[in-house]
Amino acid sequence: MNPIGLYVHVPFCLKKCPYCDFYSIKFDDALAERYTQTIITEMFTYDHIKADTLYFGGGTPVLLGAPRLKRIIDAAKKQFSLEGEFTVEANPCSIDKQTLLELKQAGFNRVSFGVQSGVDKELHSLGRAHTKMQALEAVKGAKEAGFTNISVDLMIGIPHQTPQTLLSSLEFIKQLDVPHVSAYILKIEQGTRFYEDNTAALCPDEDSVCDLYLNTIEFLNSIGVEQYEISNFAKKGFESKHNLKYWRCEEYLGFGASAHSYYKGKRYLHPRDIEGYLSSNGNNYQISDKQAGGFEEYAMLRLRLSEGIDLSLLDKRFCFDKEKILRRAKPLEQSGLLRINGEIIFLTPKGFLVSNAIIASLIS
Q: What is the mean pLDDT of residues 67-88?
């Protein structure tokens, strides 16, 4: 059995960003302690299997503090023989050099900062609590603490963004000199403050967002941070090993309220309910798919990657009409939306913009 990935959702935040649809609640220290212990308790309900990635997402995971995070890491090492890539997400305003040193000593070797923009006006419109300078200091502090594997988030299509302000953000990322960038197009979800306030009216239109996305790909590729997934870019060797498990349809276990898992052919999740999670000792998960990992799901996830999907390698694993898929792919190649290399199919940057439609046309 190949090593699995481990994900821990930490839902605590100091305040909720107006665009955020992830499960989060206000930080409370006593609740954080109970939550930490429940995460550890849940880990020991699984068989002793090997894992090689651990990812703390949120929320704002660093609010737990390095000692609690280390307790979870130590439990994961014991239960899952864990070694490999250890990632923690952080906001530039919620971390300092001392905390970064403590995180490094706790065992983390990768940190992901929610930078989002290099323009202070845009950061303000996003409801972010940090400034451009704080983002610069956070990345600098991570490097001084010994982190070499650093990622930053960038948002595209945000309020008031123009080609000029995006270029400013990209130049700022170049200045940060990090090996990984996650560049996401803003999607305004129901239930967020952005949705209620009709913030979409302040955002670039759809055609402009497409241009911004393609400009981002071109710029990042030009500085050696190359696209390897729809929204992710890395210098060679710095791709997110944990997130690649999702896109390659590999197994992972999720711990904490709202966390998802894919394990032994099933997908399941914990509800967005911290009290239910705590009171059940982490045993309140719900099965969302009893027969996960079929060809359509596998193909959909793999086609998010720049490496695409190799149909010749899947004959023994799945039953599907390979020639029909290749026939359907040829007109899309002529339109510049994908490329075909023998039996390997991969989307182009323009194809990534309409990936859902392309994938549906190929495998439906």
A: 97
- The pair of three-digit structure tokens given for residue 257, joined into one six-digit string: 């309220």
pLDDT band at 318 (very low <50, low <70, confident <90, very high): confident
Query: What Å distances lie between residue 307 and 66, 93, 294, 299, 324, CA to CA?
Result: 36, 36, 19, 12, 21
Count of all residues that appear for the chain in the document: 364
Residue ranges of domains in the chain, CATH in brackets: 4-246 (3.20.20.70), 307-363 (no CATH)
> Token pair for residue 275?
């009290």
Residue written as tokens 């001084």?
A: 144
Contact 304, 247 (CB under 8 A): yes
- Dihedral angle, C-alpha 46, 48, 52, 53, nearest 10 °: 20
Task: Give strand pairing partners of 55.
Answer: 7, 87
Q: Considering the entire predicted model, what is its pTM?
A: 0.95
The whole-angstrom separation of Cα 209 and Cα 156 is 7
Signed CA dihedral, 104, 107, 109, 112: sign only: negative
